[in-house]
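Researcher: Predict the fold of Beta-galactosidase.
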Amino acid sequence: MSELRNKLSSVFGEKLNRENPLPEHPRPQFKRAAMQSLNGEWIYRVVQKEDRKEVFRGKILVPFSPETELSGVGRMLNPDEVFEYRKNFVSAFQPEKERLLLHFGAVDQECEVFVNGEKVGEHKGGYTGFSMDISEQCTEESNLLLVRGTDGSETVPHARGKQRWKKNCRYSSIFYTGQSGIWKSVWLEKVPKNYLRYAKMTADLDEEGVRFSFAVNSPAEEEKIEESVHVRIFEPQIFASKTKEGEKGADPVKEAEEKPIHTEGMHLLYEGEARPGEEFFCKLALIKPWSTEEPYLYPVQFQYGEDSVESYFAFRKLSLGRDKKGILRFFLNNKPTLFTGLLDQGYWPESLMTAPSDEALLYDIRKTKSFGFNTIRKHMKVEPDRFYYHCDREGIFVWQDMPCGGGTYNHFFVTDFPNVWDKGARKIKDSHYKLFARQDQAGREQYYKDLEEMVEELYNHPSIVLWTPFNEGWGQFDARVATEKLRKWDKTRLINEACGWFDQGGGDLFSIHNYRYALKIKPEKNRVVALTEFGGYAFPLKEHLWSKKEFGYKFFSSEEEVTAAYEKLWERDIFPNVEKGLSAAIYTQTSDIEEEINGLMSYDRKVDKLTKEILKKLNKKLMEAYHSCF
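Model: Structure tokens for Beta-galactosidase follow.
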């Protein structure tokens, strides 16, 4: 278990409350009143897999991984080691009429969970959440929770995204410090014996109504109740937070003013009954669509017996249509829309994949929107639920990637070759598993399980408008099959089947990554043309660097230089191609990350490299050019 050192920290990490880290409700879209956070100090140790010899022990601040500074550990787990977390807790509940649920936002990569020495569950996959009923194992006195697991990082075919245990590969600078163990919130929830497990909500703009389906727990046969779910829908509202500096944008030192989503004092729009296990449709008299300009959300309350849950949904429709020249374009709510955004990887210098605070999550979202962008491409990572909750409220599109997995990539094949000969790469079939490091059948099967879990976990968030199952051939396989599965699980969103290259001809996008050449596009017959990665201009800021090693696609030595180059790039590649069919542009990237210094912000978020005014001006011009095509 090697020691790690990092000198950078954001203001969010600097003001962390270590007595009560990330105290907010982890799942605001399925919210009950009785939530008990287990974030905070745990006992942590690492042992060898083979002989169980202890390598390290100490205290750790959950939910920050041991590889992070905020965890208080600062050490990296090796693939041949096992992590163990211990936490004592007391949760007074009445076993004769209540159940106690234990929730994990995510544990990387495989784990088993024990309560008072008895195994209560296990999970494989480091990006999605899981829950278990621990009522039978708990006492009214203090209880011992044990989480034990492993993280093979790139040595196993599980989803790992941009994490690497050893950065010894070609293009190692675009991969980041691996992390392990608990990295999202842990919490307890008291529920009645009969309770809601899941609510799926699909708002249909054309039919002016919403479909619900519910899953409930399965108690013993004699305890089952024949009861409906009582659904109450309230008038739509905009719940966007406001900054204390108004038009000047978010100040990271100040608290964001958040208008919470709740039902108190709101006008009741609809009330009805739904049967669990059956799809239920209700038509609404008042329809206000969700958009980035007006992110209307409908608060909703579910009552199942004594179980009460608060949630929300929104009306938004995604489709394809044609402009006045017959070129295929994106549409939102039956109107043409263009996606202009940033590649966002969600890393922080002091806490890696775990944002140091809820305010930090909100800061990046609001900063992106203040620059004039309307889209976040969430790259190779599944964020905590609160990230998407903030996107829903603030009004910003999310393109959601599935984190990559598989074996060791041949970067000459998946990176150099397609950059030089894009057309050639698009002719290669991804059924050649060896070429794409996907020989392991169990790994391919786990991929589909992880993909389905991600879709189910995030389905109800209106801000998510697109799924990306594969990126740049990293562990890609049978992409058309993944698209078919996504269409089955979710008929409401767009799909970018194979982002960048190794195109298999499916999905809704003809996806282009371009960092080297002048962009020249032509319309596609059946798919919309999207520039899904470009730019990556590097501007090192001496006092805000994580590493002496620096990576970017082009380097500049001053704000004036990088600004001039950025404007020239848009004038050369973006604006002229809009009339030819370009309908999306995703710039790389939101912030610097470790050796990669091509962000619009420094890694610690303390400096903007380009001014907001320049960025907003270019995005406004882009929108005007796009809408002139209709």
